[in-house]
Amino acid sequence: MVSLSALALFSGLFASNGDYNDHPKLEPFIQEMVQEHQYDPKVLRDVLSQAVRKDSILEAIARPAERTKAWYEYRAIFLKEKRIKEGKEFLIEYKAIFDDVEAKYGVPREVIAAIIGVETFYGRNTGSYRVIDALATLGFDYPKRSLFYRELKNYFLMVRDNNLQPLDIKGSYAGAMGLGQFIPSSYISYAVDYDGDGKKDLWTNRGDAIASVAYYFKRYGWKKGQPVADRVTLNNTDADKYANETLSLKGSFKQWKERGVNLPKNRKEQPAALFRYKYEDSQEYWLAYKNFYVITRYNHSRLYARAVYELSQELVK
Ligand SMILES: [Ca+2]
To answer: What would the pLDDT profile of 280-305 be if each residue is shown by its tens digit?
Structure first.
């Protein structure tokens, strides 16, 4: 059996200043970037030679809360008094920005604040990993690497096109950055320079970060003034089998009624999905609409979307 200290010594002997100098995927990556994006290979080699493989990242990505926790456990993480209180303060402190952004993008301030609250506790925990380490580790050494390999490419495009320093940027273990935890492709597509200073600063600039989350929601089709979800009951236990089938809005009101859902009163006909949420000794059913689906575009999880929605409701109580 090889001890951990022997492994550390081994990697210390063979890595000069980083772990990717001799990685078999390094040269193909560089060649693709040169061919696809006319990227300067010297920059890629220089930056990637300083990337460090983080085993803690490979361990963290294997157990995300969305997959390992029941709703009542997941909910307890995000619907805490402290997160609600600080969210209300966040809305007050940046009221002028929220007034402006809400009017411009049509996305309610409490939804934007809830996203930032769930993602980073209103900017307090934006991540302590170097993004280059996170994306090199996941893009080169994670078995399900294709998304991260693409994001590593996008990261290099993002830093080149925005004059950012690739070795300095910090983020989550998955390479998500700033108050709203944007991955590089999201930064490229949805980051906004709200204050017009020529930089899209999602790490420290509240206006840029808040407007970028709003723009993300607008682009994914947020419907201003429309509902997110309603709690419902079932009049037929068979209906349960249609719950949690997919995040897509696969049924009409007529179909959900036929399957045994007691439809909410005074709600106009619209496509919907049915979700089941487990508590310790019970469960709830929710009928979710387009705006709920838009929240799942931020993180593909019915637990995530409901936590964001519930937190948003608490912020305006
Ligand atoms: Ca800016």
So the answer is: 999 999 999 999 999 999 999 999 99
- Tell me how far the alpha carbon of residue 83 lies from the centroid of ligand 1, in angstroms: 26
**Model confidence at 8: pLDDT above 90:** no
Residues with beta carbon < 5 A to ion ligand 1? 193, 195, 197, 199, 208
Is there a contact between 49 and 18 (Cβ–Cβ < 8 Å)? yes
Range(s) of the domain holding residue 254: 229-288
Question: What confidence tens digit (pLDDT) does each residue in 166-177 have?
Answer: 999 999 999 999
**Predicted confidence (pLDDT) at residue 12 exceeds the cutoff of 60:** no
| Residues facing 170 on adjacent strands | 130
> Residue 113 and residue 136: Cα distance in Å, rounded?
31
**309: in domain:** no
Q: Distance from the CA of 21 to the center of ligand 1, in angstroms?
A: 35
- Give Cα separations from 287 to 5, 88, 263 (angstroms): 53, 27, 8
Question: What is the C-alpha separation between 84 and 39, in angstroms, rounded?
Answer: 45
For 307, residues 6+ apart whose C-beta sits below 8 A from its C-beta are 74, 75, 77, 78, 79, 118
Is 50 exceeded by the pLDDT of residue 10?
no
224 is a domain residue = no
Residue 19 is assigned to a structural domain of this protein: no
pLDDT in tens, 65-101: 777 899 999 999 999 999 999 999 999 999 999 999 9
66 domain residue, yes or no: no
Instruction: Count structural domains, the chain.
Output: 1
**Ligand 1 midpoint to CA 209 (Å):** 9
Give 203-216 pLDDT, tens digit per residue. Answer: 999 999 999 999 99
Q: Is 59 a catalytic residue?
A: no
Catalytic residue among 119, 245, 280, 310: 119
Burial class (CB in 10 A: 0-12, 13-18, 19+), 291: buried
